[in-house]
Structure formats: C-alpha cells, structure tokens
Amino acid sequence: MDKPTVSVAILGQTYKIHCPKGHEAELKEAAEYLDNQMREIKASGKIVGLEKIAVLAALNITHDMLSGRKYARSNEQQLRELTSQLDAALAHDDKVANE
User: Fold this and answer.
1) 79 vs 57: CA distance, rounded Å
2) Tens digits of per-residue pLDDT, 32-77?
3) 11 close to 52: Cβ distance less than 8 angstroms
4) Per-residue burial over 44-75, b = 16 or more CB atoms within 10 Å of its CB, e = otherwise
5) Nearest CA to 79 among 71, 6, 29?
C-alpha cells in the first residue's frame, strides 16, 4: 500500500515524511506543534544548537504527554469508584423497594 509523502516545515527546514493514508492532517498538526515548541525554546535564547533545541522540545512534549496520561488514569479511577458507589446505591434502593 502506498504511503503518502507529506512535506512539513520545522524551524525553517522542510522534511518529506511518509505516513499512513488518512493521517496526513495529524502529521501536519504534530509537525506544527513541534515547530512551535522548538521556536519558543529558540526564542528564549538560552539553548543554542538545533539538536539541543529538538531534545528539549521532545522532553517537554513527552512530559506533557505523560502528565496527561496520569491525569486520565486518575480520572478513570475516580469514575470507576463513582460508578461502583452508584451501582451500590441503586442496588440498595431496589432492595428497599422490593421489601
């Protein structure tokens, strides 16, 4: 199956990247996000060198992703607990109604 080639620009450099068909917009969005992150780091003037900027951007993005996962897991756990409490309350109401 042919994979489309998508051109993306990151810090003024153009990259041609193959991606699964139908995911071109997602790839462009990811490249734009990375470009913005790298531009912010570069604009701070504290980090010099494309490689260091890229590594720092990757670390920042990974940190955000992992924090988001932890937050989602915490929310899932709270939802399971609330569902369990609701199920118990409904079971209790059914029991009282049948007495």
Assistant:
1) 33
2) 999 999 999 999 998 889 999 999 999 999 999 999 888 788 888 8
3) no
4) eeebeeeeebbebbeeeeeeeeeeeeeeeeee
5) 71
Q: State how far the alpha carbon of 49 is from the alpha carbons of 16, 32, 33, 59, 97, in Å.
A: 22, 20, 19, 16, 71
Round to whole Å and give the CA distance between 10 and 33.
Answer: 9
Q: What distance in Å separates the CA atoms of residue 26 and residue 76, rounded to the nearest whole number?
A: 26
Contact in structure between 54 and 35 (CB atoms under 8 Å): no
What CA–CA distance (Å, rounded) separates 34 from 30? 6
